[in-house]
Amino acid sequence: MPELLAFQSDFAAALRDRRRTPAVARWLAGEADVVDRRMAIYRANMVAAADKALSAAYPVIRQVVGGEFFHGLAREHQRGTPSTSGDLTHFGATFDAFLASFEHVQDMPWLPDLARLEWAAHLAYGAADAPDWDAAVLAAIPPERLDAIRFRWSPGLAVVRSAYPVVRVWTIHQPGFDGAFEVDWQRAETALVARDGFVVTVSDCPPADASFIEASLRGATLADAASATLDRHPDFDLGALLGRAFAARLACGVID
Amino acid sequence: MTAAPPPPVGAGIGLRQPHYREVFERRPALAFVEVHSENFFLAGGASMHALERARAAYPVSLHGVGLSLGSADRLAGEHLASLKRLVDRVEPALVSEHLCWGGVGSVHFNDLLPLPYTREALALLADRVDHVQSVLRRQVLLENLSAYVECRHSEMTETAFLAELARRTGCGLLLDLNNLYVNARNFGFDAAERLDALDAASIGQIHLAGHDVVDDCLVDTHGAIVCDPVWSLYADAVRRFGPKPTLIEWDTDLPALDVLLQQAAQASDIADREVAHA
């Protein structure tokens, strides 16, 4: 093995496991105890980087569990699923699965869903800016072609389903929230995550609307998404949903 | 190789999110602002909008922390592609990276890890820097690192390594004087003496920052004001190399904007004084 690769492999192993420090110490100047203390600085940096990245993507979970416990979650998550990119924006994509399996948070079974909501919000924050679009163009499409159109949804739009009141939990942890803090833990909520200009919005989405948007996001035509939704939600009002969606600029075009 | 015009010689600050609003409202006189490239590998949204506003008001320096030029096994092509998109979008005055590695195999440590300063590493870095400069179609600056361990198999000093890298590739150097001072203290060498190896023309930018002291080790936190010995080193560097675009870098425990502006003004004053005495 080339020398540089051997050195870096030993260094990496010592960062991931302190017991491997002697392997890297052979490359490094200084006494063993000094090398051990200095490698500890790099090990702490590594955890701090994971904590910082996850704190940016999961600010609500951090508030819910507290900064110290969150630091421990970051360390454990990184241990099992280390970062693979120099761009930490991507780190934490599987934090929900980690939370679902990590034994010390099993008393908060809603945490993985909250993580999925926050990750969707994190992606929406950096999503492309939606182009301006006037829904009036729909009027120009011949009626016989309307069934086959597909909506182009604004970048970042996502639906996150939960059996828990995740929208409520997210809302009461937003900066500046000054309402009542009660949470109805029996309530199942589906989150609609979107971008309004540069602001990420999270709203409680009626199940029928969520069903239509999910089908449409998967590429279904207007007719197919509507009929699949009506099968499960006979009272689904397509016109009302589209009115709200266009007003909130959730859609930014159609594929005719 | 073409390059956008460098920022005017003078002082700039690291622009961080808590200061966006105040900087855009006050428009303090700064030679340039610098951001971490990786924070803007995004398609759109509030951060990109802020960067565009900054770019409209100031020359921008893109400072990379994650490319990991020195990884022995591979250069992350997707990371370089993201940087390329950002450079094309922002048309920055300066683009810099670190002389370091950050990961090996599939794992990234998201840290700036020290290299052994060997001929093997120099050959690898020269290839990588050539590749990056040809992809970006511009010069990049390479920054010296702060470190807490050093390799016993190094064959030259870090500054000699950087000087040779600049000679081979035409890259510029980002001379971080706090990093040099941190290493001088951690490893027991004379910081000013190390400047002897550097050529004035190769130095494209200077970084100044504060550090922390943990037990027997100086740790590069970018969370404090610049210390007196680093200001002295800065005066020495200006005497040797002439005035250079100089950045006040602050990342942790971010203070009020005025503290950064005061540090930037101090850097300008020192540079002016040294130039006047030259």
Outline the structure in words.
The complex is a heterodimer of chains A (256) and B (278). Chain A is 51% helix and 10% strand. Chain A has 256 residues and is mostly helical. Chain A has two domains: 1-108, no CATH class; 128-256, Outer Surface Protein A, domain 3, CATH 3.90.930. The longest helix of chain A is centred in the N-terminal third of the chain and has 26 residues, at 32-57. Chain A is elongated. The N and C termini of chain A lie far apart (57 Å). Chain B has 278 residues and is an alpha/beta fold. Helices cover 41% and strands 19% of the residues of chain B. Chain B has helices at residues 20-26, 46-57, 77-90, 119-136, 158-169, 177-187, 191-194, 228-241, 257-277, and strands at residues 11-14, 33-36, 60-63, 94-98, 101-104, 107-113, 141-143, 172-176, 203-209, 212-214, 217-219, 246-249. Chain B has an eight-stranded parallel β-barrel, surrounded by five helices. In chain B, strands 5-6 form a two-stranded antiparallel ribbon. Chain B is globular and about 50 Å long. The relative contact order of chain B is 0.14. The interface between A and B is large, with 47 and 53 residues.
Question: Which descriptors apply to this entry?
Answer:
heterodimer; A: 256 residues; mainly alpha; Outer Surface Protein A, domain 3; three-stranded antiparallel sheet; two-stranded antiparallel ribbon; 12 helices; 10% strand; elongated; B: 278 residues; alpha/beta; TIM Barrel; eight-stranded parallel barrel; two-stranded antiparallel sheet; 9 helices; 19% strand
In short:
Chain A is mainly alpha-helical and 256 residues long. Chain A contains twelve helices and five strands. In chain A, helix 4 crosses helix 5, helix 6 packs antiparallel against helix 7 and helix 10 (207-217) packs antiparallel against helix 11 (222-232).
Biggest interface, which chains?
A: A-B, 47 and 53 residues
Total separate domains of chain B: 1
CATH architecture label name of the largest domain in chain A: Alpha-Beta Complex
Count the E strands of chain A: 5
State the fourth-level CATH superfamily of chain B. Divalent-metal-dependent TIM barrel enzymes
Q: Which architecture of chain B does the CATH hierarchy give at level 2?
A: Alpha-Beta Barrel
User: Which fold name corresponds to the CATH topology of the largest domain in chain A?
Assistant: Outer Surface Protein A, domain 3
**Low-pLDDT segments of chain A:** none
User: Which class do the helix and strand fractions of chain A yield?
Assistant: mainly alpha
User: Which fold name fills CATH's third level, the topology of chain B?
Assistant: TIM Barrel
**In CATH, what is the class of the largest domain in chain A?**
Alpha Beta
Enumerate the strands of the largest sheet of chain A in spatial order, edge to edge or round the barrel.
2-3-4
